[in-house]
Specification:
- The protein is an alpha+beta fold.
- It has helices spanning 15-24, 76-93, 122-125, and strands spanning 7-12, 45-53, 70-72, 100-108, 113-117, 128-135, 140-144, 147-149, 155-159, 165-169, 175-183.
- The protein is built from 3 helices and 11 strands.
- The protein has one domain: Jelly Rolls, CATH 2.60.120.
- α1 packs antiparallel against α2 (76-93).
């Protein structure tokens, strides 16, 4: 969604939810659904798909008809209480009033990179693109229009995904974010 600034901090985030997510994440969860990992620029990432589409390849993203194809995936129930707490926190602490959402955990490998790109199509241009850092490091940078930013755990971020952006992880640990696309 277009913003007047590259990104903004929407609110703080509950550290107990972050710790609960860390405790619940298991290595095997990252290997169940690899659909996002095959998309351009995401080869160095892994995702835990929670609420998304059954078959991404058959969705028409040029209009809003895709919304009828959003479904909870295999691991949604495992994390559902934490997702609901996160959504409630966002709803209670921001002006965003959403009717639909997709969500997933995304991790970027150590010393990995998500190449510079812009998001396009109704599915990506009309959402509030939300990032909640779970595991990160000061050497992990979000790059928006050639400016590097470090997004810290304890905050909820929204960024303008129609601007040129990417990520670089310049350290030896995985970077993990909980991500939401929120649709009004």
């Amino acid at each position: 969604m277009k913003l007047d600034v590259p990104y903004k901090v929407l609110c703080d985030f509950d550290s107990q939810i972050i710790e609960s997510i860390k405790d619940r994440l298991e290595e095997k969860d990252w290997h169940i659904n690899g659909i996002r990992n095959t998309m351009a620029n995401l080869e160095q990432t892994q995702s835990i798909i929670l609420r998304y589409f059954d078959d991404y390849s058959k969705i028409n993203f040029s209009d809003s008809s895709w919304q009828s194809n959003v479904t909870n995936h295999k691991l949604y129930e495992k994390y559902s209480d934490l997702i609901e707490q996160s959504l409630k926190h966002i709803s209670d602490n921001t002006d965003i009033k959403f009717k639909e959402y997709v969500c997933f955990f995304a991790r970027l490998r150590p010393n990995g990179e998500v190449g510079q790109h812009t998001d396009s199509g109704d599915f990506l241009e009309t959402c509030h693109r939300i990032h909640i850092p779970i595991i990160t490091h000061p050497d992990c940078k979000y790059i928006i229009e050639d400016v590097e930013y470090h997004w810290e755990p304890g905050n909820v971020y929204e960024f303008d995904n129609t601007r040129m952006h990417g990520v670089v992880n310049r350290n030896d640990q995985w970077r993990v974010h909980l991500m939401f696309n929120l649709y009004e």
